[in-house]
What we know:
The complex is a heterodimer of chains A (380) and B (347).
Chain A: H1 2-23, H2 27-37, H3 39-56, H4 58-61, E1 82-84, E2 90-103, E3 110-121, E4 123-133, E5 137-145, H5 164-200, H6 202-217, H7 220-229, H8 237-268, H9 271-278, H10 283-319, H11 331-335, H12 341-346, H13 352-375
Antiparallel strand pairs in A: 1-2, 2-3, 4-5
Helix pairs in contact in A: 2-13, 3-5, 3-13, 5-6, 5-8, 5-10, 6-8, 7-8, 8-10, 9-10, 10-13
Chain B: E1 16-29, E2 34-49, E3 54-58, H1 65-73, E4 80-87, E5 91-94, H2 100-109, E6 110-113, H3 127-137, H4 143-156, H5 173-185, E7 191-195, H6 203-220, E8 223-228, H7 231-237, E9 240-245, E10 248-254, H8 255-260, H9 265-272, E11 323-326, E12 329-331
Parallel strand pairs in B: 3-8, 3-9, 6-7, 7-8
Antiparallel strand pairs in B: 1-2, 1-4, 4-5, 9-10, 10-12, 11-12
Amino acid sequence: MEILRKTGNQTGARIARKEDEAKVVSVRRLMWLRFKRNRLAVIGGIFLLLMYLAAIFAGFIAPNDPTMVHSQYVSMAPHGLNFVDTDGNFHLIPFVYGVKSAVDPATFRKTFQIIPEEKYPLQFFVRGSEYTILGIFRTDIHLFGVEEPGKLFLFGTDTQGRDIFSRVWFGAQVSLSVGLLGVFLTLVFGSIIGIASGYIGGLFDDIIQRVIELLMSFPQLPLWLALAALVPDNWPSDRIYFAITIVLAILSWGALARQTRSMVYALREADFVTAARYSNCSDWRIITRHLLPNTMSHIIVIATTAIPGMILGETALSFLGLGIRSPLISWGLLLTDAQHIRVLVQQPWILTPAIFVIATIIAFNFLGDGLRDAADPFAK
Amino acid sequence: MEIQLNAVPHADRPLLEILHLKKHYPVTRGLLKRTVGYVKAVDDVSLTIYPGQTLGLVGESGSGKTTLAHSVMRGITPTAGSVIFHDDHLGPVDVASADPAALRHVRRNMQMVFQDPFSSLNPRMTVLDIIAEPLQVNQIAKGKAAQERVAELLQLVGLRPEYMRRFPHAFSGGQRQRIVVARALALNPRLVLLDEPTSALDVSIQAQTLNLLKDLQSRLNLSYLFISHDLGVVEHVSDTVAVMYVGRVVEVAPTRKLYQQPKHPYTEALLSSIPKPDPTRKKRRIAIAGEIPNPANPPPGCHFHPRCPYAQPICAHEAPPLREVTPGQFAACHFSDELNLKGVNDF
C-alpha cells in the first residue's frame, strides 16, 4: 500500500513535470506557431521548397539536355502528352506522337505535323543524356522521357531548337540561387554595417547614413547596367555569375543596413541592454547576446523580402544581355528570345519561363508576409 | 543560503554621497548643431544614503529622478559634481570620474531595477541565462555553480527554481519584476537603485513586491534609492525622503518629519494629493495651478514660484538655497520658518 502510493505519487510528479516542460515555449516555437497560422505563407514556403528541390535535381526532372540543339524541331509548339489517340482509343499510359516537319509552300514557314502511326509511350526512369547533381553525382537516369526517336517537348522548343521545359529547370538553378546568394551577401554586409552604425552612433552613424542615402538615390537600373557592363566578356561563366550577384547585392545592402540600424538604435536604449551594461557586460557580449538575437528574425524577414527583387534584377539584366551569359542558363536569358515581337506573336510559348518567374516572386512575397508576422510573435 | 550578511557598519558612515551633481543636456539647433541652451535635468543635487537604509526620491515626471539614478550608475556621465561610493575594498570611489576598472568593481556593488518589467528582461533569454549573466560576466560562477546560485536567488525572491528554464513571456508583470530583482541581487550588491519598481504593476502586486523588497533589505542589509511618484508607497518604504522639482531637491527630511511637518510648499501640495480611503473626508486638496515648467526654460528664482500659493516678490528672482530648517530637515524655501504648512494628516 505504502509502496503503491509512493509510485503513484512519483508518476503524478513526473506527469506534472512533463506538463510543465510542455508549457515552456521558446520564442522560436511561438514564431513557428504563428507562421503556421498564415496559410498562404505556408503554401508559398512549400512551393519554394519544391522549386529549389527541382532546381537541384534539374537534370533528373528535365527529359532533355538543355543545350542540345534539335535542328529538326526548331520553334516547335508544345506538343503534349495524349491519353486519347486520333481514333478515339483511350490509353492508360500517355504517349506522344512522332512529328515530321514540312515547309508551308505559301508562307515558307516551318510546320509540324503529327504522324498518327508513331506513338511513343511515356516512360519513367529512362536513360538519356548524362548530367550531374550538385556537380557530384554523375548519372543518366531521367524521371521521365520517351524512347528515341520520339521527342518530348512539353513547353515546346526555342528558336534554336532547344527544349524549353528542360531549360526552365536548369535556368532555375541560376535564377533561384542568385537570389539566395545575393541576399546572403546583403545580409552579412548590411547587418554588420547596420549594427555598427546603430550601436556606435554619433559621427560614424551620420557618415554611414549619408553614404547609404547616396547609394539609394542612384537610379537602380542604370547603375546595375553600368556595373554589369564592367564585367569582362572573356570571364568564365561562373565568375560572371558571382560578379552579377555582387552587382545585385551592392544596391540592396543599404536598405537592410538602415532597417537594422533603426532596430539596434531602439534596442540600445531598452532596459535589458542598460541592465546588461550595468552588470559589466562587454560591448561584444551586448551585441552578440542581446542585440543580435532580438534583431536577427527581423533582419531575416527583410532579407526574404529582398530575394524577389534580386531574382527580378537578375532576370532584367540577363534579358538585356548584360547578366548571365551562355552557356549558363537563367530565366532572364530564356526570355531574351522574346525581345522580338515577331517571335512573340508566332511562338508565344517561349514566354513560359516568365510564368515561373511570376510564381516564384509571388511565393516569396507570401512567405515574406508570413515571416513578418511571425518575427514578432508577441504583437497582437 | 550563502548570502552573507554584511556586518552593520557605523551608522553615521554613509554608503553613497551624491555631491553637487549636475547633468545638463545641450539643446542644439540647425545643421551645425549650435548649442542654444541647456536642459538642466539634474541641477546641483546633493544626497546621502546610509547602509541598510532607504532614501525615497519623489517628484513629478520630468523632475530628473531617473536621470539622477542613471548618473549614479554612470550610465549617464554627469556634467559636474561627484558620486562617492564608499567601497569596502577600494574605499571612497568617485563613480563620476572612476576609471573603467574601478567602475566595474563599483557596479558589482550597485545595481538597478527598472520601471518596466516587460522591457527589462531580454525576451530571447531564459530566466536562468538572465540571472546568471552577471555571475558569468564578472567571473563569479558559471555552469552548475551559477545554476545553483540562480535557484537560490529565485527562492529568495519567492519564485520556484523550476521556472528557470522558462522565457520571460511566460511570467506576469509581478513575477517578472521579481526576476529583475533576483538578477540585481545576483552580485550581492550593497546598494540597489529602484526606479519606480512598482508603478507598472497592479495594486495588489505592488504591495507584495514592496513587502518583498523590505524583507530583502532587512535580510541582506541592502541600501535602497527608491524612486517613485507615489507618495504613499514612498512613505511605506523610506527612512528618508527627498522631494525633487525641475532638477532640484526642494526638501529632504526623515520620512515622518516630512510627512507630518513639511517645510516646502511643494511638498505640502504633493501630500495633499495622496488619496485616502475615507468617504466622509472632504476634499481639501491643494490643486497646484499650472504645469511643471519646461526644464530647458525654467522660471527664474525659485522654480516653484509661479505655482506656489505663498509666493512673494523675492521668490521670482532669488533661488532659495537648501538649508536646515529643523534638525535633519532641509528645505529650499525663503519662508520655511514662517509658513505653517499642513502635514499628511491635516488634509
